TrEMBL record, chains A, D:
<feature type="domain" description="ABC transmembrane type-1">
    <location>
        <begin position="26"/>
        <end position="222"/>
    </location>
</feature>
<protein>
    <submittedName>
        <fullName>ABC transporter permease subunit</fullName>
    </submittedName>
</protein>
<dbReference type="GO" id="GO:0005886">
    <property type="term" value="C:plasma membrane"/>
</dbReference>
<comment type="similarity">
    <text>Belongs to the binding-protein-dependent transport system permease family.</text>
</comment>
<keyword id="KW-0472">Membrane</keyword>
<keyword id="KW-1133">Transmembrane helix</keyword>
<keyword id="KW-0812">Transmembrane</keyword>
<dbReference type="InterPro" id="IPR049783">
    <property type="entry name" value="ABC_perm_TupB-like"/>
</dbReference>
<feature type="transmembrane region" description="Helical">
    <location>
        <begin position="98"/>
        <end position="122"/>
    </location>
</feature>
UniProtKB/TrEMBL annotation, chains C, E:
<feature type="domain" description="ABC transporter">
    <location>
        <begin position="3"/>
        <end position="228"/>
    </location>
</feature>
<protein>
    <submittedName>
        <fullName>ATP-binding cassette domain-containing protein</fullName>
    </submittedName>
</protein>
<keyword id="KW-0547">Nucleotide-binding</keyword>
<dbReference type="GO" id="GO:0005524">
    <property type="term" value="F:ATP binding"/>
</dbReference>
<dbReference type="InterPro" id="IPR050093">
    <property type="entry name" value="ABC_SmlMolc_Importer"/>
</dbReference>
<dbReference type="Pfam" id="PF00005">
    <property type="entry name" value="ABC_tran"/>
</dbReference>
<dbReference type="GO" id="GO:0016887">
    <property type="term" value="F:ATP hydrolysis activity"/>
</dbReference>
<dbReference type="InterPro" id="IPR003439">
    <property type="entry name" value="ABC_transporter-like_ATP-bd"/>
</dbReference>
<dbReference type="InterPro" id="IPR003593">
    <property type="entry name" value="AAA+_ATPase"/>
</dbReference>
């Protein structure tokens, strides 16, 4: 219990210490998870919208597959990516193992189904009508997509926030593909896991608090994009 | 009241053992504990963590008994009153493992001298993966660097903050060196390309100890069970079992019992 | 735009809701579609507007199967307004046609003034009253001068004087730009005021097609007769 | 790479081996995660609906707080729960540390914000109108809630599926509060993490495959509840 | 139910859309509310129906501030139907009133037959045509015999003969059960046919209140006069 309160104190000290290592860890976390969220959104938001308004054979199976992949354990995503990019793997020649790039790839795999699933769900409910209006007003394919994006922004926002939440908070995938190398691939969650495994609870909680505070700010920024209502 | 009695019985019938990953991952506990449970009727719940965390769990009274390998920390633990008494149980040894082609030429020049080997790694600018997690192994490694007069820092030195198995895999992936306990290395040998390059130095001795957590921490601590476990594992039967463990598979025991 | 329809059928789970053998809609006409609820009027115009697939049959636009969606617009029975201001809603078709900002401004302000809702310009569309929403939806369709204008009960929630204004605008566009207009309405009065031709639909079929006078004063069909008498009954 | 294909073989062998330990692990995973999802839903679905239709002061802050908690790292959730229920913690007298019950508690904490956030989002969009209709037709409070549930079932479904996905796939929280004790608190994800750290990749992937297959079935069952459209 | 309104004001961001000083609606009347789009008609009835808060002012139901929501119902301008079948939609108010299954069955079948949509009984509500939706919404409100029935342009998308049927039903319920009915309409014809009294609203204010004849043939107010002339213009 005491550790929780101490965690708050430590979090404060951590932030005002301006320790370079701490800030590097925070920045790398943000870089990796935000990039993964951004890359995923780039594919998933259009994919979710597409799924929501277009009918095709086996659509039901695809949708159920996506919902299922929402339950993909981060460790498995990490492991599969690791095996693909490892020295002996098919993409070994790229030399990606234990790099931030590998961490981004693994998190992207994890986040894609989440954003796709949530955006699909919102589109299914309102997408058809929006598409029709766009059509009647003479919008081309790209304009229709951008209108759908605008009108469905609340759902897109929820999808992205949920996806970001998954990315920033997961530890299994980045731990495996990144390796938690000090000064290079160590991020907030891997630090937390490490500190926890070393029994340094209050420091672990301190970093957790910092992580949550940062998420609060980031959600605020994302929230402003979907505003205007 | 009858409920109190049953709850007491349940409490007596199980203990929490905090230990290092090496004892669990090597399969030793899977091999020993069913016998213990049959002998005493006490169920053992194994929580496998690093030595640092295991000691912390003891300090917090979250575990009843510890089986760890960092002798000086263990003695400090007992001295601070967190544990009752420390006993030697068994030992194995540490080894330096590395890629077959051995770029820093450890096997050639330092096959039984760990300090020299560390110097060679540093001089050859070969990659070294450190546990970096304050575990028993990590503490040992730090001591060697100190003795070698090297401050491990730079691109060649990767501090991973992970368990032994993970670190071995990392070393395997980047074709680097690492310090490992023999048991974990042997249990993973088939899956990796690393080989033992340095062994046999007295400094690489790895002693495991058992400690009962001081029952004054809280009333949930099952000291009776802990004592029974200590008595049992130090006893002849268990020591014999330890000696036999792994012989068939590795032709050598993974741990050598040395209880007095 | 001239439209001709050939054996158009729409079924839902085997239930036929539309079955139009042949129908020719001349360029520059104002065609009224009347008929009881569930007759298939909305279904028909959705297919003409390219918003729904027919189960079988064809629609030809100026004799061809293809057409530019930019030339055709449909105003729905329940308008869907974009989640933004009135101004942006009406400006949207011009924006996607990449008109100059100033031209858009002028056009939008002009049309809002004409229909008397310039005061609502900056109001969010979802706070409008029912009639106001219909006005915005109609303005949004009229502003980009389509060559085929399809209206599904576009004034059902408007007040009488707004209706008069809107009808004038539609007639003017039809006259000046030779826009073909198809309008569904339940008001025979309205059909009388603006339509040149009228179709009476019942149970998915076209029962009657002809000039306003022919259909209303001289229906060939007893169903049409009954419907028109019902109308007379209440008016 | 080869490990991935072998993983499929191993998954098959695992399932047909009818090994008691394997089935115990699978069942415990399901028990823990489904219970956590169920308990969370019980609180979160009404809470999300409530947030969506009722206005109050500081609502915006509460909503942003919930979105933020979606990014709570499982390790932190695990750690905080652990400190609370640990022997010297305030709830130590309950004797919950290293038990399945503790795992359920930790996962529940993790899943509550996710379900609440997603349900809130759906309710915000349609809830007000549904509430009005219920009112005009004379529904009392409970009947209104049950109508909202029915009408918003698609959103509720997405929330529950996303929450379940988080629960079944996370390893950080269950590892800490459960301890991965063989035969007692070992679940699929902690097994995967352990096997992975032992270098037994194909077995880790095999369990991952089994986990995903099970999720496919579970999502199918959940999906049927929201059907009828 | 007798309703009286006292200094009712509704503002949105300081913009006053409703400002009704005093209005008394007698038990058993059929009150028509007419007026241009955006006059505040829907806002007024939403407040009366307990669905929106007034910025200030009071509504008294039978002289009291409290009332049972079970006695009052509102049919919206844009009906919201539950995502289920027509039958379940109409049965819903009876179900939550815990009526017996058999009684529900009988009542629902009876009303669906009366308004001529028994064939749609098992159709999903969201596949209905616009007029059909309005019929279901109205049936759902009429079936549980509220003592105050508030209707917001309930027949705007219905065909003339359906309108005739619906008006008859409303008149009958009003006669037999002494239900107070408030109906918003843009059709003076409809107001003439069914309303005993009528309110003319403009810019949030009640401009005129009186018997049908008084308001329509002898408007006190020049705005009312202009509105009624607009109506005459188009009919
Ligand atoms: N998906 C569907 N499944 C079954 N029936 C449907 C479906 N969609 C529409 N219908 C039916 O098709 C018929 C025609 O509908 P449509 O909307 O074209 O009628 P309408 O003539 O426009 O009526 P209204 O005057 O009420 O607007 C209706 O009876 C409707 O119930
Ligand atoms: N949230 C809001 N913000 C600003 N203005 C609003 C808001 N909600 C409603 N209004 C305005 O209040 C006025 C009254 O609306 P109301 O829906 O009561 O009109 P009405 O008389 O029912 O019109 P109609 O005949 O078109 O249905 C409208 O001009 C509308 O734009
Ligand atoms: Mg229609
Ligand atoms: Mg209105």
């Amino acid at each position: 219990m005491g550790e929780i309160w101490e965690g708050f104190k430590d979090a404060y000290n951590l932030l005002i210490s301006f320790d370079e290592e701490v800030y590097k860890i925070i920045l790398l976390s943000l870089y990796v998870s935000l990039t993964a969220t951004f890359v995923s959104s780039f594919f998933s938001v259009p994919a979710g919208i597409f799924l929501g308004i277009v009918d095709f054979k086996f659509k039901k199976v695809v949708v159920r597959g996506i919902y299922t992949l929402m339950s993909m354990p981060p460790v498995i995503a990490g492991l599969v990516v690791f095996l693909l990019i490892s020295r002996k793997g098919p993409f070994g020649f790229l030399g990606l193992s234990f790099t931030p790039a590998a961490m981004i790839i693994a998190q992207t795999c994890l986040v894609i189904p989440i954003i796709t699933g949530i955006v699909y769900n919102g589109t299914k409910q309102k997408g058809q009508r929006i598409k029709m209006v766009a059509k009647t007003l003479g919008a081309d394919k790209f304009q229709t997509l951008s209108l759908l994006l605008k009108e469905l922004r609340v759902n897109v926002f929820t999808g992205i926030v949920t996806g970001y939440g998954r990315a920033i908070s997961e530890v299994g995938a980045v731990m495996i593909v990144g390796g938690n190398i000090k000064g290079y691939t160590r991020v907030m969650t891997t630090s937390i896991a490490m500190l926890q495994s070393m029994g340094d609870y209050s420091m672990a909680i301190a970093i957790g608090i910092v992580l949550i505070m940062i998420s609060f700010v980031i959600n605020g920024i994302l929230y402003n994009f979907q505003q205007g209502e | 009241a009858p409920t109190e009695e049953t709850s007491k019985e349940v409490k007596n019938s199980s203990i929490i053992l905090a230990t290092t990953t090496s004892t669990e991952n090597s399969g030793l506990l899977d091999y020993l504990l069913p016998v213990f449970e049959k002998d005493t009727g006490i169920k053992v719940k194994v929580v496998a963590v690093g030595t640092g965390k295991a000691l912390k769990m003891g300090e917090d009274g979250e575990a009843d008994v510890l089986l760890v390998h960092a002798k000086s920390s263990e003695e400090a633990f007992v001295k601070a009153g967190h544990g009752l008494e420390r006993f030697d149980v068994m030992y194995n040894d540490f080894v330096i493992i590395g890629p077959k082609n051995d770029p820093a030429k450890l096997y050639e020049n330092a096959s039984n001298d760990v300090i020299k080997a560390f110097k060679l790694i540093n001089k050859g600018n070969a990659k070294f993966v450190s546990r970096g997690d304050d575990s028993g192994t990590h503490k040992k490694e730090k001591k060697f660097w100190e003795e070698a007069g090297i401050e491990p820092k730079g691109d060649w030195y990767l501090s991973a903050g992970k368990g032994m198995g993970d670190v071995i895999q990392m070393a395997n992936e980047i074709e680097g060196y690492t310090l490992s306990d023999r048991a974990t290395y042997l249990s993973m040998k088939d899956k990796i390309d690393l080989e033992i390059l340095v062994e046999g130095d007295n400094k690489l001795f790895n002693q495991y100890g058992v400690i009962a957590v001081n029952p004054n921490k809280n009333e949930k601590i099952n000291n009776d069970g802990a004592q029974k476990f200590i008595d049992w594992i130090l006893g002849e039967k268990a020591q014999g079992l330890i000696k036999a463990f792994g012989k068939d598979k590795f032709s050598k025991p993974l741990f050598i019992p040395n209880a007095r | 735009m001239q439209i001709s329809i050939n054996n158009l059928v729409k079924e839902y789970n085997g239930h036929r809701v539309l079955d139009v053998g042949y129908l020719n809609i001349n360029k520059g006409t104002i065609l009224g579609i009347i008929g009881p609820n569930g007759a298939g009027k909305s279904t028909l115009i959705k297919i003409i507007g390219g918003l729904e697939e027919a189960t079988s049959g064809q629609v030809y636009y100026n004799g061809k199967k293809i057409y530019s969606q930019k030339d055709i617009t449909v105003v729905f029975q329940k308008p869907y307004l974009l989640r933004t201001t009135v101004f942006n809603n009406v400006a949207y078709p011009l924006m996607i046609r990449k008109e100059k900002k100033k031209a858009i401004n002028n056009k939008v302000n002009k049309i809002l003034k004409e229909i008397g809702i310039e005061n609502l310009k900056n109001q969010k569309a979802w706070t409008l009253s029912g009639g106001e929403m219909q006005k915005v939806a109609l303005a949004r369709a009229l502003i980009f001068r389509p060559s085929l204008l399809i209206l599904d009960e576009p004034m059902s929630n408007m007040d009488p004087s707004s209706i008069a204004i809107m009808e004038e605008m539609i007639k003017k566009i039809n006259q000046i730009e030779k826009t073909t207009v198809i309008i569904i309405t339940h008001s025979l009065q309205q059909a009388k005021r603006i339509c040149k031709e009228v179709v009476f639909m019942h149970k998915g079929k076209v029962q009657e097609f002809g000039s306003m006078k022919e259909v209303i004063f001289n229906p060939k069909n007893h169903i049409t007769k009954a419907f028109i008498q019902g109308e007379l009954l209440i008016s």
